[in-house]
């Protein structure tokens, strides 16, 4: 069993190639101490990130997802992060209705020179996920919670008359 | 001349220049209407106009692209047509819209529940009659009278668009929108009142009975990918064939996210669901979010660009988080 089992959580980071991935590299080159829970996936641009990547990740085993791209106005492709910002903000407000704590997802902007900022973002986000603990799974929802929500909406006749 | 007769006359006048006109007809029993594709004058005589016209005919428009077709719309259907026009999924010069003022349609789930309460099953319906306020269903020798306000679809209880938003031929006089009733958003109110873990339990409870028939997708006028839906593609393999709540819910998230800023809340997804899963709640929540963030409503202005297909350099309502 790996030494870190139980101490680390699974956090997935989607980082744009041009700024945030470079920022994480700068932090590494500068030998800044960082938590090691984050697994980084490099994407061409934050505009490449389909919000469904994030939902899929969260529903299928990740405890947290961090997205980071170039600062607004600094996108390598001029406007990718402007579109991303709208999509990600909509997603962040959508997650709670699904029963996913909105704190498990965050998005931010880190440029390639901001190694210090990257260290801060990773540290704060990892602490936030550790405060929330491992993500609950559909398979292990408590029976008393299920019983509680079962009668919340009256069911229509499609099933009654079936 | 009744509105329906006038409508039939207008359609017959327009029919020679059109591939077909889409409307509604009587279905396999008196309670269920089905879509009607009018290609001849004889077909036009089958046209019905009643609260049983639950389907949204806009769903049939994109496959007809390239041919000129007519469509009869309720107010909510016309919003779907407008949204299709906004996204250039249909061409304005290929669509002839026939609009009528709509007094609301029934939710057959609610009608069947009423019938079940009265001790008869929907399969035995012998007669259906209706006026503005009530609908009387005779089944198993028993006449069951229902108030329209009790059996109307949720969307009708808060309808702000009873008249077609866009129409080439409008039959009848426009009517005033109804005052929204709180019962219309009972699903959203219930979800809002829950804690986050309770919501997870809620979706686990409801999605558990999903049979993945994809009726919600097929009935949706905005689901235009058709044969290329990512739910059924193996490469990329978005959804596995596992029969789990997570996979089923993931599909609903795919549907909802693909409708973000495009959904006109016609409610077809939930109406088509054979398992009565409250899937519309997800889209309602997203629409509310889109309205809060971008002050936008889908399917109202044919010239508007959907909010997720555009951006502002300085967003009005999105604040960056400090770290």
What would your notes on this structure say?
The complex is a heterodimer of chains A (about 160) and B (about 325). Chain A has a single domain, classed as Rossmann fold. Chain A contains 6 helices and 4 strands, in the order E-H-E-H-E-H-E-H-H-H. The longest helix of chain A has 19 residues. Chain A is globular. The C terminus of chain A is likely disordered. With about 325 residues, chain B is an alpha/beta fold. In chain B, strands 2-1-3-4-8 form a 5-stranded mixed sheet. A 3-stranded antiparallel sheet of chain B has the order 5-6-7. The longest helix of chain B has 15 residues. Chain B is globular. The model of chain B has no long low-confidence stretch (mean pLDDT about 95). The chains are: A alpha/beta (about 160), B alpha/beta (about 325).
Q: How much of the sequence of chain A is in beta strands? A: 5-15%
Characterize the largest beta sheet of chain B: strand count, sense, and whether it forms a barrel: 5 strands, mixed
Give me the Rg of chain B, rounded. Answer: 20 Å
Q: Span from first to last CA of chain B?
A: 69 Å
Give unreliable regions of chain A as ranges.
Answer: 157-162
The helix fraction of chain A, in percent, is 40-55%
Rough outline of chain A: globular
- The count of helical stretches of chain B stands at 12
Q: Give the class of chain B from helix and strand content and strand pairing.
A: alpha/beta
How many helices of chain A? The count is: 6
Strand content of chain B: 5-15%
- Sequence stretches where pLDDT stays below 50 over 5 or more residues of chain B: none
Oligomer status: heterodimer
- How many structural domains in the coordinates of chain A? 1
Main sheet record of chain A:
4 strands, parallel
- Binned, the helix content of chain B reads 25-40%
Please indicate the count of domains of chain B: 2
